[in-house]
């Protein structure tokens, strides 16, 4: 996804999330005003910010889904194939956000007393919930090959941050043309399509039958096989 698209996606989701946070604040204000500081800082606040993070991920995913779905509805799918999952950096960004939510106060004033049991338990639960969401997301993302486009679509809950312009594409949910593909290479059980200008790659799981179909489409589009020196 280009820097411009990432920026639009991020800031649209960001402002929707801010609006959601405002609504939650108004609704729960009477409750929040009547709880003690320990409960708020160690239980309520981390839970709320975890919910906000997940809400932000859902909004970004929904916008991606709407965008790619429009192209899927307008073009006949020649081939549908499972993407090869997420790279490690995707998980690290989200896990870093969770760590900051629960432990950012420790960076300011570290002490054993500030590490409460409720905070640790909630951190572990949040970690497991995020991992579950990412696993479900990974299973839902497919590549759809049409006559003119390669469409990566699904419930993609990965964070799209505008500051990571230099980050390589790795099965990012988006719409690609065949002109975006420089070359490809077939491995034993997966195929890699390399994007122009070293932007990254699209990776798909294949078997012998899918491999034959892939080669047919790529040859038709005059996309060469990559040569390793």
UniProtKB/TrEMBL annotation:
The lineage of its organism: Bacteria, Bacillati, Bacillota, Clostridia, Eubacteriales. This is DUF5673 domain-containing protein. It comes from Senegalia massiliensis. The chain crosses the membrane at residues 7-28, 40-63, 84-104, 116-134. It comes from the Bacteria. Keywords: Membrane, Transmembrane, Transmembrane helix.
């Amino acid at each position: 996804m280009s820097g411009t698209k990432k920026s639009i996606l991020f800031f649209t989701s960001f402002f929707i999330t801010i609006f959601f946070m405002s609504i939650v604040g108004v609704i729960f204000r009477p409750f929040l005003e009547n709880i003690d500081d320990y409960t708020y800082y160690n239980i309520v606040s981390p839970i709320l910010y975890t919910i906000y993070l997940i809400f932000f991920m859902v909004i970004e995913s929904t916008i991606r889904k709407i965008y790619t779905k429009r192209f899927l509805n307008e073009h006949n799918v020649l081939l549908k194939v499972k993407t090869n999952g997420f790279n490690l950096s995707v998980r690290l960004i989200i896990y870093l956000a969770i760590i900051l939510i629960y432990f950012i106060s420790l960076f300011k004033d570290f002490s054993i007393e500030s590490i409460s049991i409720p905070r640790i338990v909630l951190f572990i639960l949040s970690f497991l919930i995020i991992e579950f969401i990412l696993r479900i997301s990974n299973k839902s993302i497919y590549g759809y090959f049409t006559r003119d486009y390669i469409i990566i679509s699904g419930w993609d809950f990965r964070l799209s941050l505008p500051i990571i312009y230099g980050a390589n594409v790795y099965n990012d949910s988006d719409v690609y043309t065949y002109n975006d593909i420089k070359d490809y290479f077939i491995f034993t059980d997966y195929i890699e399509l390399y994007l122009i200008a070293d932007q990254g790659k699209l990776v798909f799981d294949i078997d012998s039958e899918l491999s034959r179909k892939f080669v047919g489409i790529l040859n038709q589009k005059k996309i060469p096989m990559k040569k390793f020196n």
